[in-house]
Amino acid sequence: MFNPENRQPIPASAGIGLRAPHIRQVIDTLPEAAWFEVHSENYFAPGGAMLRQLAAVREHYPISLHGVGLSLGSDDWPYHPHLTKLKKLIDHIQPGLVSEHISWGAAGQLHLNSLLPLPYTQEALNVMIEHVDTIQSFLKRQILVENASTYLEYAHSTMPEWEFVTELVRRSGCGLLLDINNIYVNSVNHVFDPMQFIDAVDPTTVGEMHLAGFSRKEHLPVPLLIDSHDHPVYPEVWDLYRKTVQLIGIKPTLIEWDAHIPEFSVLQAEADKAGEVINAHSAVAC
Fold this sequence. Notes:
Layout: E1 14-17, H1 20-29, E2 36-39, H2 48-58, E3 63-66, H3 80-93, E4 97-101, E5 104-107, E6 110-116, H4 122-139, E7 144-146, H5 161-172, E8 175-179, H6 180-190, H7 194-200, E9 206-211, E10 215-216, E11 225-226, H8 235-248, E12 253-255, H9 264-285
Parallel strand pairs: 1-2, 1-12, 2-3, 3-4, 4-7, 7-8, 8-9, 9-12
Antiparallel strand pairs: 5-6, 10-11
Helix pairs in contact: 1-2, 4-5, 5-7, 7-8, 8-9
């Protein structure tokens, strides 16, 4: 088990989402990468090859744990077995960051393989705040929450997404994982200016940013983007990322790619593009 005093912080540079096809390559060759992020639930099984491989990667790189199954927005939360497994993984790996989604995906014993949207109401906000407080108390550390991509809106929502997200962060004391691709996807799907979201964010609360590729559904009557994580980052998202860095500053930025996963060198090239944005901003700031 790693000593908590040796926890490696996530650097304010471009990292790569580490998926199964590349783990062996990373262990064997130690490629150039600032940091890696993995999905927490993939490493919940006690012992075994996958956990040993992650520990081997952790010996050389900072690691961030990103959860996809905690269902923070569910009314009958928390799921103590899930939390217990997450805490054991955190204690073992000592990640620089721990994050989850602003979404729900479970009800009772029914768990859905999806990050479902919440109504943006005071009631839903209070539920999320209570659950974030619970998890941070249980883990004894701050977590980040990520704004999710959504494909429908609730008629009874009483506030815009960015107000819901920023109030959750402010009132719970958690940090924000600002997913730039998700903001762009939602701005197209729900017709709003993505800069409204960015302008509402307190820069001091942002602990990480995500970049990914989306898919276009051309056959539908209205435009729809899907946060599919199976393409390079689109120019529109790169442009929004540049504007975000100008307003919010440099933050750890992750390249996500979860389907049709390419060669590791392709992910490195995407991370290099994010690095160019970061370096350009650093040069202007100096």
